[in-house]
């Protein structure tokens, strides 16, 4: 999760983003140069930028005939830029948006989710603790718009009932949890079956 604006600029550079993709497995500047067709000097420059912002790290040092070759690897399997990196330009969150059926509202919810998870992940990493989260992903195909509307109404009723059943305002040691449910059209070519079990 990238929260630093400077790190976001570095990661979003197309050439460096490609290197991050290549560095899911350790590689040297020489190996990357052959793969992406850029001179080793330019590769080294980009790698220094990525390393300075914590996006790659040294996986191993190899010695070849008196020379030391550094092999680097990405520090994560993938990266997401948190809205925090945009500062005030990221917007004020979903509370100021009245239309809950708007794309703006859904984007604001997603941005808040990423922002909060970034903060919680950093805290959990410092404490070396596991973050108690749960995700659920599925796909559904409605025959008619009326079915989608009926589904949304029934889902709202069901979630409201479950929240009322388990919510305890006065529980000693209780902990607030945030729940977000989103329904949106799937882009053309998107997977219809989620891979793996919900986690």
Textual characterization of the structure:
The protein has 199 residues and is mainly alpha-helical. It contains 6 helices and 3 strands, in the order ααβααββαα. It has a 3-stranded antiparallel beta sheet. The protein has 2 domains: 5-74, Winged helix-like DNA-binding domain superfamily/Winged helix DNA-binding domain (Arc Repressor Mutant, subunit A); 83-166, no CATH class.
**Mean pLDDT figure:** 87
Number of helices: 6
Rg over CA atoms, rounded to whole Å, is 22 Å
Question: Beta-strand level of the residues, as a percent range?
Answer: 5-15%
Q: Give the termini separation.
A: 18 Å
Strand order of the largest sheet: 1-3-2
Shape: elongated
| Low-pLDDT segments | none
Say how many strands there are.
3
The structural class is: mainly alpha
What percentage of residues falls in helices of 4 or more residues? 40-55%
Series of H and E elements:
HHEHHEEHH
When the domains are counted, the total is: 2
**What profile does the largest beta sheet have?**
3 strands, antiparallel
């Amino acid at each position: 999760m990238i929260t630093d604006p400077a790190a976001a600029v570095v990661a979003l550079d197309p050439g460096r983003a490609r290197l991050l993709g290549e560095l899911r497995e350790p590689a040297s500047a020489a190996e990357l140069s052959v793969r992406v067709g850029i001179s080793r000097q330019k590769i080294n420059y980009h790698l220094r930028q990525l390393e300075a912002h914590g996006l790659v790290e040294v996986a191993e040092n190899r010695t070849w005939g008196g020379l030391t070759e550094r092999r680097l690897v990405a520090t994560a399997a993938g990266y997401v830029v948190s809205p925090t990196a945009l500062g005030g330009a990221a917007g004020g969150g979903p509370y100021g948006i009245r239309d809950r059926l708007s794309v703006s509202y859904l984007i604001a919810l997603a941005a808040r989710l990423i922002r909060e998870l970034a903060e919680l992940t950093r805290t959990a990493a410092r404490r070396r603790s596991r973050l108690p989260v749960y995700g659920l992903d599925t796909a559904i195909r409605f025959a008619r718009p009326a079915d989608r509307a009926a589904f949304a109404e029934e889902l709202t009723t069901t979630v409201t009932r479950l929240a009322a059943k388990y919510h305890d305002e006065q529980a000693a040691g209780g902990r607030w949890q945030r729940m977000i449910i989103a329904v949106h059209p799937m882009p053309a070519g998107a997977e219809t079956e989620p891979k793996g079990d919900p986690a």
